[in-house]
Amino acid sequence: IFVLTGEELKRSGARNFPEALRLVPGLFVARTDAHTWVVTARGFASTLADKLEVLLDGRSLYTPLFSGVFWEAQDTYFADVERIEVIRGPGAALWGANAVNGVINIVTKSSADTIGTQVQLAGGGNLESAVSARHGFNIGDRAQARVYAKQQTTDDQETASGSDAKDGYRHKQWGFRSDWQLSDKQQLTVQGDQYEGEINRGASEDETYSGFNLLARWQRQLPSGGQYQLQAYFDRTDRNQPGIFAEDRETSDIEFQHSFSVGERQQWVWGAGYRRSEDKITNSALIQFLPDQRDIERWSVFAQNQIALTPKTMQLTLGVKIEDNDFTGTEVQPSVRLAWTPDDKRTVWGSLSRSVRTPNRLDDDIVVVSGASPTFFIEGNREFESEEVITLELGYRRSLTEKLSLDGTMFYNDYDQLRGVDYTGSPPQNPRIDNTREGSGKGIEIMLHYTASPTWAMYLGGSFFDLELDRKDGFIDPSVSSEDENDPRIQGFARSVWQSGRLSLDGTLRHVETIEDQNTPSYTELDVRVAWQLEQGLELAIVGSDLLHDEHLEYGNEQTG
After folding, report:
1. 3-state secondary structure of 176
2. Handedness of CA 90, 323, 378, 61 (dihedral sign)
3. d(Cα 232, Cα 214) in Å, to the nearest integer?
4. Phi, psi (5° rounding) for residue 9?
5. pLDDT digits over 350-373, tens only?
6. 161, 436, 472, 529: most buried by Cβ count inside 10 Å?
7. pTM of this prediction?
8. What is the per-residue pLDDT across 420-463, written as a single tens digit (0 to 9) for each?
9. Which residues contact 74 (CB under 8 A, 6 or more apart)?
């Protein structure tokens, strides 16, 4: 697990979640236009990336439409984020389907930690303006709450030829959180958000999106040191891209967890959950989902046991999650992990896991109609099976000196039943989505942390990744050979964090190697943040992003600057 703290997020100068995730070694983050992002772990980069589970305070952010995330719609009051936990690699034994190559878990602060008023104003570059405010207050002696509101307007980018890219957007959002100490052993959290946005698509009408969510979480501490937790949320989203498609979706989710100890050497956690997602699609002549309405249910149960084989030195973790979904029925996702810590300076660990990416509406129900002559279709497939990966990981962590530490991971992924488009037939009429591919991915992720002095720290991170895809026997999938290098093979960054008195200076130099199948050249960029604490409660910060070039391409062939 790699953790970005709230202080690190603040000092990075990041304005949204994807920008912050650039600081995580092993993640690939690219901006394709003013509002669209590619965020992946260990391969399969795409604006429709579908192998990464993303949660915000326990609420899943991916959509069953394509198992990915509409990143422009995911926001909160950024200063209230306590930490972002990133699991690079499978997390399905706890998190379930979609946690194939990684998990991003965003956790916000308790309202007890945000008492008072804060206002933030920002602007510059493509960011036309950003205004946000939050107020936290006490409710009696045992409860606290906060409310926030924010609005951001991002200008259109400029293409390499100098024309307007017509891709800007506007986002408005407000929300609240309240935390109640019901007793010495019981806590209740209630929170919610509402948002809306408009995206310039260069058409006569803007794309629009909106939504709201409400979440409640009850926790009870047990005398033995364990805990009960019950969480439920409701999430509604609406999106309308005129002439393409529109989607209305309502998701209800409830989950129970129980953690406890057995003796001095076993730590158990188990739980069960249910999720129901109902959608209504407005089809167009180009893209259709048939049927245009569908209810999707998922039941799950999981258990994990951490066993201290030898006190303080050898720990074995066994876990499994069993899910029943409407697409493929029952899926079993087990995991075994072993960690050896011979002393307080070294840890060696290894794991073996199975994860799946269950089908979605795109896999099963989509029909894409080409306007070319003659007209042809790409159809979904109700017999599409879950994508599967078996992952082997080896890791090493060590304190090399009192000031220098190392964290490294090697991994190998064996993929089967990957999605492609089958063109079997003569002539190849009505190609359809199917499990046409298999393959393997391997890589190394390294992070060095050097504490030069009490006021200065440095981080050096890098990763190497290689993906090889093959066509399974019995299928004709001509594009498989041109899609296994959609990710950079090499990435790296160097980050410096310095503070003295009221002045802080932070900089990040990052490099992304060439993305062959996207014809995207390599680039190196520098981000810098300088901040002055003018007085207690008042700070002025200047952030410079992408300072080494006037423009550069990050993903794809559209030459936006």
Report:
1. strand
2. negative
3. 9
4. -65, -45
5. 999 999 999 999 999 999 887 665
6. 436
7. 0.95
8. 999 876 666 678 999 999 999 999 999 999 999 999 999 999 99
9. 17, 54, 56, 61
